[in-house]
Amino acid sequence: METTTYKIYSTISQLPNYWDEVSLENAFLQTSYLKVLEQSAPSNMQCFYIGVFENFELIGVALAQYLNLNKLESFGERDKCLKTYVRNFVFRNFGSHALFLGNNMITGQNGYIFNKEIDLKTIGEILSKCADEITLYFKKQNIKIHIVSFKDFYQDCAVELKKSSFAKMYEFNTQPNMIFELQPQWKLNEDYVASFSKKYRDQYKRAHKKFEGIETRELSLDDIVLHENRIYELYHHVAKNAPFNTFFLAKNHFASFKKQCGNGFILVGYFLNHELVGFHTLLLNGTTLETYFLGYDEQVQKEKMLYLNMLYNMTKFGIENQFKKIIFGRTALEIKSSIGAAPILMTGFIYHTNKWVDKLMPKIFPRLEPTFVWQQRHPFKES
Fold it and tell me: Which of 235, 222, 256, 292 is nearest to 33 (CA)?
């Protein structure tokens, strides 16, 4: 750590030269995406950008996000039960100011990247020091950070981090990240469909038959601006009916994304009788295709199997454009596994700044997390 230093920035204009060269392998840490956050982050979110230096040379970048949950209209309206009410009460009163080291808007290990080999002990120390500095920054503004969370690590990283800086933190696993490793022999969508067992080939055919009458087309920036209110309405319907939320996107988020990232960001609209009834979004991240937010009309979704067809369409795009894998994220685990995605366990670390509450974290946290029971599907023929 002697020659490794860091600096925390609050605006994109402050970022050092070569930021994009260092973050080249992760689109979620490139300035084009960070500008999207700066211009259209959720209203209850403030972002911080971290530069890591070795002998004054930039070697790593990271992202932190502060969330004020008091500003949130809803934590999620799908589950109406005692556990949900208790969870909401606890967050309102004991966890309303939260700091995430990482990106709370997406699933995956997207919180930091280095352009050279750095041991995880050093990474853990840097992230912990950054959390302390940002916590102090808010303290000077009379805002007490309640919860600090280090988000989404793959298992090999989590094991190493647990040995050093994160040793005393509560380690947690939420829903897995659904990742689809695309087979290199799939050159066309027909190759993918042919690999299904009969049951899932029939599911594919049934979904496509239901889908008749729906027109799909990729929307330009002008199209996104034109349909902005409807896009947000469809997104908001899905978001507020999720089991748990810590933010809602700004209305201009998708237009801002398209403006900043151009062809690297794709929004596909689904139209029925010339009316927009659904959309999905994708971010091109090197050889990885990242699924982003989507929205749909609930009635059309039921009648047309809209969500399942969206998953098939995203997979088709990934195959035909030669991506190696698709990150489908959390939620809807069973249906995502039915099209080929597999669960990958993600680990986070969390602590409460009140030491007495923190001691109770192993008992409190499992009671706050929604319980998901699901069955993994295996759609492909046995080789």
Answer: 256
77 pLDDT more than 50 = no
Residue ranges and CATH numbers for the domains of the chain are: 4-174+345-368 (3.40.630.30), 178-343 (3.40.630.30)
Amino acid identity of 152? D
Of 270, 280, 277, 279, the C-alpha closest to 300 is: 277
Per the rule left: phi > 0, alpha: psi between -120 and 50, beta: everything else, 285 is: beta
Residue 80: phi, psi to the nearest 5? -105, 90
Amino acid type, 159? V
> 349: burial class by Cβ within 10 Å (0-12, 13-18, 19+)?
buried
Question: What is the strand order of the sheet 288-296 is part of?
Answer: 214-218, 265-272, 275-285, 288-296, 325-329, 177-181, 342-344
Q: For strand 57-68 and strand 112-114, is the pairing parallel, antiparallel, or unpaired?
A: antiparallel
Residue pair 284/250 in contact (Cβ under 8 Å)? The answer is no
Nearest CA to 264 out of 17, 28, 13 is that of 28
Give the tokens for residue 50.
């971290």
Q: How confident is the model at residue 79 (pLDDT cuts 50, 70, 90)?
A: very low
d(CA 48, CA 305): 40
In this structure, what are the phi and psi dihedrals at residue 71, rounded to the nearest 5 degrees? -85, 0
Burial of 157 (0-12, 13-18, 19+ CB in 10 A): middle
- Which token pair is 116? 């050279």
Find residue 268's DSSP bridge partners.
218, 280
> What is the rounded CA–CA span in Å between residue 169 and residue 317?
40
Side-chain-side CA neighbours of 21 within 13 Å: the count stands at 7
> Do the beta carbons of residue 360 and residue 366 sit within 8 Å?
no
The yes-or-no verdict on residue 163 having pLDDT over 70 is: yes
Which has the closest alpha carbon to 62: 45, 50, 48?
50
Q: Which residues contact 339 (CB under 8 A, 6 or more apart)?
A: 180, 308, 311, 312, 315, 379
Residue 372 predicted with pLDDT over 80:
no
The predicted model gives 22-35 an average pLDDT of 97
pLDDT over 90 at 267, yes or no: yes
